[in-house]
Structures are given as C-alpha cells and as structure tokens.
Design goal:
single chain, alpha+beta, two-stranded antiparallel ribbon
C-alpha cells in the first residue's frame, strides 16, 4: 500500500494542496517547476498577451508535447521481440 503525503505546490502564483503517493513527490514537484518555467517564458516572450491567453498557450504547449510523445512511442520493436519469443516457445514446446 502506498504511503500518502500532502504537499503544496505553487503554480502560476497559486497554491495547490494535493495528497499524493509519497513515491510520486518528485514528479509532482518537477512538473510544477517546469510549468512555472513555461509560464515565465511565455509571459516574457508575449508581453502584450493577457494572463488567460498565456495560460492557454502553456496548456496547448504541454498538450502538444504529450501528443508528440505518444506518437513517438513505437511499439514495433516490442512486437518483434514478442514474436521472436513466441516462435522460440513454439519450437521448444514442439521438441
């Protein structure tokens, strides 16, 4: 059973209190840090944009990154390895 931990993250100047699995603390804190970096970058780059637009741009940027990573995941090597093992198992069981 995972041990729970309550943390407070500061994202875009707002506090977010969460109860998470203790072993995921680093991931949550790192995610908050990266989001704040992107917010700062967009805020400094697009100085005339209002804050809701900046938040929308950061959300879109992060969604695009997730989508691109999903398309980069190529399961072909795994499928090839599984077929190889399956063929090996078939050969061994026939002998």
């Amino acid at each position: 059973m995972d041990e729970k931990l309550t943390i407070t993250l500061n994202i875009a100047g707002r506090s977010l209190r969460l109860t998470i699995n203790r072993d995921e603390e680093f991931v949550y804190r790192e995610t908050a840090r990266k989001l704040n970096e992107r917010l700062d970058f967009f805020y400094k780059t697009f100085t005339t944009a209002d804050y809701p637009t900046i938040l929308t741009m950061v959300a879109m940027d992060q969604a695009l990154e997730c989508e691109r990573m999903g398309h980069k995941t190529d399961a072909a090597p795994l499928a090839d390895k599984m077929k190889e093992w399956s063929d090996l198992i078939d050969r061994v069981t026939k002998e």
